[in-house]
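Contributing new records

If you add data, match the layout below exactly. Sequence lines come first and carry their own label; structure lines follow with theirs. Keep one chain per record. Anything else will be rejected by the validation script.
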Amino acid sequence: MQFLASGVANSLAHIVTALVALIHVYIVLIETVLFQSRGRRVFGLSQEKAEMMQASMSNQGCYNGFLVAALVVGWLHPDAATGAAFTVFGLCCVAVAGVWGAVTVKRTILYIQTLPAALALALTLLAR
């Protein structure tokens, strides 16, 4: 239990949360500005299908940007309790969005999005 109360758990929570944020920065980019190039390849879409989906994907990318924003506010907020609340909220949103994406779009989203968010959330809560 000493490990959980130490700064190690807190450091791991920050590292894994940073990884979740970076994953989502990448997702934002491939769903918005890189959608016709990298995003199209990542999602396995034809040029025609990508053109039809571009507006929807850009909107989805915007929402993923809000998830990143919640995590960044969590790090930068001067009040530790408020920052922690933003972090927990952001990680919960990422995890729920990942479950929904895995159910409705592609199962691998569970591993790319939900698993890292759940791990970061668990570490964040254990470090308190």
